[in-house]
Amino acid sequence: MITKNTIDKIFSAVRVEEVVGEYVQLKRAGGNYKGLSPFHDEKTPSFVVSPSKQIWKDFSSGKGGTAVSFLMEIENFTYPEALRYLAKKYGIEIEEDIQQVSETERESRNQRELLYKIHEVANHFFQEQLYQTEEGQNIGLSYFRERRLNDEVLKKFQLGYSPELRNAFTQIAQEKGYDRDLLEKSGLSIFPENIPSGIDRFRERVIFPILSFSGRVLGFGARILKNNIKTAKYLNSPETEIYHKSHVLYGIAQSKQSISRENHCLLVEGYMDVISLHQSGIENVVASSGTALTKEQIKLIKRLTPNVTILFDGDAAGIKASFRSIDLLLEEGMNIKVMLFPDGHDPDSFAKAFPKEYVKKYIAEHAVDFIHFKIEVLQKDAGEDPFKRAELIKEVVKSIAFVPNHLQQEIFIQQVSKLLSVSEQNLFNELQNQKNHLQQHEKTKPPQLKKIETAQLETSIPPLLFLEEKLVELMLKYGDREMFRKKEDKVIKSSVIQEILNHFEEDSYEIQSPLHQKIINEIQKGFAESAFRSGQFFFSLMDEEVSQKVADVLIEPHQVSDWNKFNIYFSTEEEVVDKLVQDIILRHKREYILKIIKDLQLKIQQDPGNDVQYYATILKLSKLKIELDRVLYRIL
């Protein structure tokens, strides 16, 4: 178990804007940062990061919390996995209290953690084989040298080599304590019935580790070097609990910062395309690894930029197959350009043949929008044939139908009209036909009734619970802030926390919400130790439900406009905290009295023999309620 001291060090070092910024393109908005939600499709940014409070809030999905909770959501980490990732990122040594962990707990590490670990072991093994064995140097390293890769880029992409011995890795992994079941589930080893010792899946191949967004090894791609063997040139890891190839882009871990900084992503096909462009100094590039592009892969890019340029090597079959990728990118609201390299070149060879600045300039000058690209490709086959030209127009308009922005659709239609000499009206008619066709194939959306029912439930929250929640929110927002109130002829000095906690302790009030009770318990503990500072006390707690609540309270969905420049002035909540706290306390007290009265009335129905005693109590409470109404200026 990670010690509390280590957790405190991690939370002291971590910067939530740095962690989130590796996954979401953030832009400054006042004192905060804003970006598009990585959890929910949206066009208007509603994802907010607060550097001062070290929390994030996603208003589209309702999620929020700390850097730890963000990693748990985005990477599906457990709490300890997220802490270990942050400790590594910020150079913090992990201290563990072994005595608090039983032998059973140590042995019951979940399957995902073991899969990650075995892939780390394999990655280290493959790199060791490449650099430290004669076979690896003569075969694997020689191949990479032939491909003109330098040491820096080899290390950057963690390239390796799997030796000819059929169970070299399998044997070492078993010696380290990894059993056959795990090796089979990982896809690293195969155990045919006639070979009980197992076979390494990637033997006699150079290795390309496939990393997650955060840089964890998920699987491997491997290329065979012998030409006389009848097998696939490239071999990938099979689908596992941690590796789903449709959710991964090769090079995303090494390229994400550059993509975000450049606000532009180059999309290529193969491993070597990515690696060679990186070696040339062009780092904002990822690959779909030869598979058809998926929505999940596009969303990975969209976290960082909406701008994509697809780079092709000019293969006609591959170009036409790319039309589906273009439509998917358009459907996700991406800004797309396409570029074909000159005959005989692909991204790999072009990056090696010319210097960085020439390659960047060439891409910038030769990349065209998807309309020009599709027309150019299809017109070669269509020629002057009217039927083929009609199909060409339909194909181009079909892509425009995927564009979600209506204004952009109109601009694209005008562009096609000029390029193909077709009336805009006919193009708009065809656009509507294509939209109707798409709608017919669209999956049925879930009924909106559930949303309405949820909204009704949210608005029908009991007043007592609602006011209790407001008091908890005030403690989280203003913590140990000093406040003053008059009592008789004296001015009493206290704090927001003291006022509210004293109120809760009166009349043996029972907290209505378990989450509120949890927060109040932590506030009492932290405040007694003088450790509470406006919510910051909570961020090193392991309870992410509490962190979520803190994020909900401390990040406002809207920023107040600067009305002062128009000579219009409003009091902010912070300026009237004293009055606000006292007012809500009185209203909460009033609702609590009403609840007690209702409970007593119910008891009278159930136990009429004691009705005199109950009526006497109700009378006293009613008088107290009238007094509270007078203070609150209620008109009776």
From TrEMBL:
Gene3D superfamilies: 3.40.1360.10, DNA primase, catalytic core, N-terminal domain (3.90.980.10), Zinc finger, CHC2-type domain (3.90.580.10)
Domain Toprim: 263-344
Keyword Hydrolase: no
Catalyzed reactions: ssDNA + n NTP = ssDNA/pppN(pN)n-1 hybrid + (n-1) diphosphate
SMART domains for this protein: TOPRIM, ZnF_CHCC
GO cellular component: cytoplasm; DNA-directed RNA polymerase complex; primosome complex
SUPFAM superfamilies documented for this protein: DNA primase core, Zinc beta-ribbon
Pfam families: DnaB_bind, DNAG_N, Toprim_2, Zn_ribbon_DnaG
GO biological process: DNA replication, synthesis of primer
Enzyme Commission identifier(s): 2.7.7.101
Gene Ontology MF terms: DNA binding; DNA-directed RNA polymerase activity; zinc ion binding
Superkingdom in the source lineage: Bacteria
Cofactor binding note from Swiss-Prot or TrEMBL: Binds 1 zinc ion per monomer.
UniProt keyword NADP present: no
Keywords: DNA replication, DNA-binding, DNA-directed RNA polymerase, Magnesium, Metal-binding, Nucleotidyltransferase, Primosome, Transcription, Transferase, Zinc, Zinc-finger
Cofactor(s) required for function per UniProt: Zn(2+)
Annotated function: RNA polymerase that catalyzes the synthesis of short RNA molecules used as primers for DNA polymerase during DNA replication.
NCBIfam families, sorted: dnaG
Family to which this protein belongs: Belongs to the DnaG primase family.
HAMAP family for this protein: DNA_primase_DnaG
Assembly, per entry: Monomer. Interacts with DnaB.
Protein name: DNA primase
Provenance organism: Elizabethkingia argenteiflava
